[in-house]
Amino acid sequence: MAVFLARRLAIAMLSVIGASVVLYAVLALAPGDVFGELVSNPGIPPDVIANMREKLGLDQPIHIRYVNWALAMVQGDWGYSLVNRIDVGTLIWQRIPATLLVVGSAQALALAIALPVGVLAAMRPYSVFDQIASTLAFIGFSLPTFFTGLLFILLFSITLDWLPFIYRADLEQTGGAWVWAQLRQSIMPVTVLALFQAASWTRYVRSSVLEVIRLDYVVTARSKGLPERVVIVKHVLRNALIPVVTMVALELPVVFGGAIVTEQIFRVPGIGSLLISSIMANDTPVIMAVTFVFACLVILFNLIADVLYRWLDPRIKLH
Amino acid sequence: MAGPSHQTTLTVADEPRAPTSWQRFRKHRMAVVGTVVLGLLVALVLLGPLIWNVPIDKIDFRARLAMPSAAHPLGTDDLGQDLLARLLYGGRVSLAVGFAAMLVAVVIGTLVGAVAGMSRGPLDAFLMWLTDLFLALPTLPLLLLIIYLFRDALKGLVGPEVGVFVLIIAVVGGLRWMPVARLVRAQFLTIREREFVEAARALGASRLRQVVLHILPNALGPVIVAGTISVAEAIIAESTLSFLGLGFPPDTPTWGRILFDAKDFLSIAPHWALFPGLAIFLTVLSINFIGDGLRDALDPRKVR
User: Fold this and answer.
1) Phi and psi, residue A87, nearest 5°
2) Which Gene3D superfamilies match (chain A) (predicted)?
3) CA angle B270, B276, B278 (to 5 degrees)
């Protein structure tokens, strides 16, 4: 296990470096000037800008610039937000909890829906339940998150007036009221994200369970007289979940993409809405850093999925 | 009852043949419905503007935010512009982006997958590492970053509308080739060892000839399925970008862009957001059902 972990960590580090190279290459290839705003400002003399360029090492060849940038990132110096006037690192740390909270609860909710529905559908394939579930799943992942979000606002905030449609980080309430308000304002963003995920996961769970449930060892377990519940939970599910873990890991980039959209719709103050507002404000350091953080999050959760995979399936050996 | 000799003739003549791909596709009811709906939608956005020739940018403040009526079957937006005309026009752009981005993804994916599948050793390993790296990149943030960085330059080069169109197709397609590459490589690895390819090789067929004439046509099934699904994904990607206000400019009313403009008027003019949303949903749902039907029809495990 230690060797496996070490190798997997090394691969993850390589991926982080790869992602940073891709991001930096995109930035370097882009036409225009990072100092575009400053250059067009007549109040700043050109020699001041030339000075800043030299200080930031912008007159050096690209690979040196990349190494300098990467070293600065590693040391925690993520630059300075031109708009918010604080360190990019601080800004991102302020925003990350909201994103992780929304994404995390959405994943948990999606799993809580997809697992039982997928298993039940696979236990009676082509039954009425199965057909309804798979039709709903198709509808679920054909509904883009931005449209579901608007529909939810229209239904639950405007028509029924049950839930607030703006997420606030600075709730005035304290204690139990705070928990209640927090819960109320999280319901819509979390559900929008969860429904989309649950729809595609239900299909994975169903097809995966369907494949395992026909295997001989399941027949053996049944003929030993084990109750169906035990057969499913202890024998089928564990093996059926292995491919599901891979599919879930492969979909992580989509999950974080969905988080950007939901954060933007419900104004959740996470890194997704930070990315959009920075793009609107041409705040390049923040844009670069947030994109990089998204890449790292995806790689990190992929790593977790791989470790989980290994734990679920000891037969897998890393070759 | 028939004698043994008659029985033999029957078997030879009327042996039930495996259903063709088309027959299998037809049996998937939702896929057929999806094909019809998508066909109608395409016909509507192509031919609709010829019949419903209200200009998409005719501003009429007296009909501001009007509900659907005879004069405006789908109502109007905050400038009194006719929504039906805008939806029809925007549908052309949205669908064109979807199909073009799919082509980009399929071409890049097939190239990468074919090269990886034909070359053993370091090149294959490198290309697959690249594929895995791209699969791990967060697509939407990267899309946003690229569009943010390149938008203005391309606008200056080829004009705002064409510039954004080319950019969106290139990046949406350019970030969606990885599943195709994996599928093509896997197909190539098995097909290139089959006897008919070996026979072609023995006859002295060049590598290119083997690939183009013998391997690729047999590897197409999964590519078609993946390509179909990626049309839906590309349409969602474009709509998402436009919905975030970072896709097409306001004078190009793609479905996502109309939603973006409509979202602040949800309480007073819900129809404005509902119709483009429904259009995206219907299109994507039809394409997904078609993809599912094609998977049933073209699954190599079912052929034969």
Assistant:
1) -60, 140
2) MetI-like (1.10.3720.10)
3) 90
Any domain includes B58: no
Position B303 scores a pLDDT of 41
Percent of chain A at pLDDT above 70?
91
Task: Determine the length of chain B.
Answer: 304
Q: Which residues of chain B have pLDDT under 50?
A: 1-11, 302-304
Is A140:A199 a contact under the CB 8 Å cutoff? yes
Whether residue B269 is contained in a domain is answered as yes
Cβ distance A276 to B246 less than 8 Å, yes or no, reads yes
From the list A15, A154, A279, the residue facing B144 with the nearest CB is: A279
For residue A314, the tally of other CB atoms under 10 A from its CB is 8
Q: Give the tokens for residue A212.
A: 């395992």
The CA distance from A30 to the nearest CA of chain B, in Å, is 6
Chain A: closest CA distance from residue B47 (Å): 25
What are the extents of the domains in chain A?
2-88, 95-312
Tally of structural domains, chain B: 1
The verdict on a CB contact (< 8 Å) between B136 and A295 is yes
- Partner-chain contact B136 A19, CB within 8 Å: yes
Rounded CA Rg of chain B: 24
Q: What is the domain range of residue B268?
A: 22-52+85-302
Nearest to A272, CA basis, from B68, B53, B144, B194? B144
Residues of A in contact with B137 (CB under 8 A): 19, 22, 253, 295, 298
Interface check for B289 against chain A (CB to CB < 8 A): the answer is yes
Tell me, what CATH number does B156's domain have? 1.10.3720.10
The count of other CB atoms within 10 Å of the CB of residue B43 is 10
- pLDDT for A55 equals 64
Confidence at residue B3, expressed as pLDDT on a 0 to 100 scale: 45
Residue B63, domain member (yes or no): no
A154–B270 C-beta distance less than 8 A: yes
Crossing angle of the two packed helices A284-312 and A252-266, in degrees rounded to 10: 130
Interface size A-B, in CB pairs within 8 Å, comes to 130
Please check whether residue B69 lies inside any domain of the structure. Answer: no
- In the predicted structure, residue A52 carries a pLDDT above the cut 70: no
